Amino acid sequence: MNEADRLREAMRVTESTDQGMLDLAAVVREGRRLRRRRRLAGAGAAGLVLAVAVAVPVALRPGGPPPQRPADAMTTASVAAPTATPTAGPTTGTPVSPGGTDRKPTGAVVSSGIRYGAQERVFYFVPVDVPSVPRVKIGLVAGRRDTDGRLTPDVLINDVAGRDRHEGFHEIGYDQQGERQFVPPVPTFGYFVGPAMRIVGTVDGRQVNAELARWSADPRVVIFWFDPTTLAPGVRLDGILAYDKRGARL
Amino acid sequence: MARDDTEFVEFARAASGRLVHAAFLMTGDRHEAEDAAQTALARTYASWSRIRGDDAYRYARSVLVNHLVDRWRRPIREYPTEELPEQRDDDVADAVATRRWLFAILGTLSPRERAIVVLRYYFDLPEAQVAHELGVSVGTVKSTSSRALEKLRGVGAGAPRVHGTRR
Known about the structure:
The complex is a heterodimer. By secondary structure, chain A is α+β, with helices and mostly antiparallel strands.
């Protein structure tokens, strides 16, 4: 018997004590709850059931409040906008051209290629000042850019503990609008610090590749987002992993 | 109970033993293993209308393994010796030795490596299928399997005589 066969056999022969321990009634209850949540998310009502989010999204509006900690978080996006079906396209970074926002982007505005009529989904960092978290100086905005370069912020995410440049994943932003969609659905987005060349999310056993762009102001920072045609906005990820150029997990 | 629920419960009863054991091999913790298997089955239930039939087991297995790879960050724990089935003393000693040997090997692997080994050698999946389910290259599966077997050779001197049959 070779090593592979011995390993195979050892895994099987230790199997015998693991049978019949699961509470299948609890499994069905949890499965029903998940199914309901997905239906709500699919109907654009993810915000109703995803109110307790890992991320700390803070909706912005011109002249709106500064970023806040979770207890104070607001989701008061008030910007009416066309809601055409998003489409995916090429990804490029473009020079900063702030328009109607009170918060100037730091570094380049990243184009996602996702369009809503004449507007395009963009991502950009802005300076933030989070009380009692002095090492968090930046937040990532999911916004829209008009043809004249004017930026309209939809959602800002920022860390609420530690520092904004620690290696690894930071807060992840989800669409959290209720049944009434005030702005186009916001793709799931976030940033990773490190040499990531590929970022893969997992949802219900399905793996979804993220789109990536390096931040012009700090090349260690990788902005990522999930194409809304492959990951519905508002649907929570079960996991997320980053890989370097050799395919090694970071 | 709806007909779909009856079908699902039958499926879950048939699949749960192997799912729990696969999770146990990946975590070394029986309670974590049961939680992971319940999570995988709940998500399978939520998608049942779409994946019932031939895809259901593959779906549940994929959810389970990816869930554990993503969530499990701690090193594997000590192998447990409780709840051994009623057997002759010699069989119990063999079972304990086999389990100790197996977890000594698995404990040297990262969570992703463990997942590859479990999919490859416990579920007997071809390399391409393992690569697909974990979202890695076939080369990664080959090299990880090779490293695992290398480690196995390293501890092979203490390998027990494995016997018994799959149920």
